[in-house]
Structures are given as structure tokens and as C-alpha cells.
Amino acid sequence: MFSPYIDIHTNSEKITLRKKISEIEKILPSKYFVRCHRSYIVNVKYVKSILKNSVLLENGIEIPISKGKYEEINDSFINYICE
User: Where is the HTH LytTR-type domain (predicted)?
Assistant: First the structure.
């Protein structure tokens, strides 16, 4: 079921907005934020490693990666590291 709300998790808080994830995706800088799943956008700055089917964040949370998104998130992560 579609929810009109989106949760944004920061280092210090959780913010709930009444927006579509696609609207949030458009305003975030693509250099740092990548949509890895239809329900998740991650900041590559906080990615610890990329596994076969998920992204492991520095805080230990594992976020799923859609099959078609693996290459995009991997490239974004490598580009961030090589800066």
C-alpha cells in the first residue's frame, strides 16, 4: 500500500515529510545521493560497503539494492571514494 509519507533518517533525528520519494530524489545532489531501491535513497558518504544485494551503512544498517540499481550505486560509491 502506498504511503504519502517519507521518513528521512539523519545522524541525529528522523524527519517525516508528506512527499513522494521521487520529489525528494530530484532535490538531492546526485553526486552524493543515489536511489538504490524504490523505497530507499542513500548518501554514499555513509556507505561502508556494497554487498551483492544490499548497501551496508557505517551505522550497521543494511539497505536493499534493486537488481537494476547495483551498478549505479557502485559507480557512485567509487566516484565518491576517488574524489
Answer: 1-79
pLDDT at 18 (0 to 100): 93
Output phi, psi for 74, to 5 deg.
-65, -45
Tell me which DSSP letter residue 24 carries: H
pTM of the shown model: 0.86
Size of the chain in residues: 83
Question: What architecture (CATH level 2) is domain 6-81?
Answer: Beta Barrel (2.40)
Cell numbers describing residue 25 = 530524489
- Kindly state the cell numbers that stand for 16: 517525516
Q: Mean pLDDT across the stretch 4-18? A: 91
How many Å apart are CA 55 and CA 50, to the nearest integer?
Answer: 5
Residue with cell 551496508: 56
- 38-42 contacts at long range (C-beta below 8 A, 24 or more positions apart): 38/66, 40/64, 42/73
Cβ pair 4, 18 in contact under 8 A: yes
